[in-house]
């Protein structure tokens, strides 16, 4: 049940990023909401499996930058989820530049934190 709640929270955060950030869009024949759900599913799975390993590996750099490098790790995970979603499911999730992916990862992090606080998905 917690995974489904976390998936819904991530879907809302990804939808907010698609809506707010220029350069992030879903351009395919698939419905936008279906693309958001597939991408958020992959992003949730990557956040549970790959992201902790990446954070441990980037710990020295994160320590030197006082934790700011964690946003770069989030951006890499977003790129990875986009690549998987486009390759496996042909979602059509397009990231124009690294800057737009960087801003999208910040938006996803903020919206997810707010939604997790409201729903209690991290308890």
UniProtKB/TrEMBL annotation:
Pfam families: Phage_holin_4_2 (PF04020). PANTHER family: SLR0284 PROTEIN. It comes from the Bacteria. Keywords: Membrane, Transmembrane, Transmembrane helix. This is Phage holin family protein. The keyword Transit peptide does not apply. The chain crosses the membrane at residues 33-50, 62-83, 95-118. It comes from Slackia piriformis YIT 12062. The keyword Membrane applies.
């Amino acid at each position: 049940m917690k995974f489904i709640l976390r998936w819904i929270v991530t879907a809302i955060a990804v939808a907010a990023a698609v809506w707010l950030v220029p350069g992030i869009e879903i351009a395919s024949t698939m419905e936008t909401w279906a693309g958001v759900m597939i991408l958020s599913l992959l992003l949730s799975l990557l956040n549970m499996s790959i992201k902790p390993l990446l954070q441990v590996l980037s710990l020295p750099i994160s320590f030197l930058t006082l934790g700011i490098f964690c946003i770069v790790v989030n951006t890499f995970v977003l790129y990875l989820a986009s690549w998987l979603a486009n390759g496996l499911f042909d979602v059509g999730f397009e990231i124009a530049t690294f800057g737009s992916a960087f801003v999208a990862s910040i938006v996803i992090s903020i919206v997810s934190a707010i939604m997790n606080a409201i729903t209690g998905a991290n308890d």
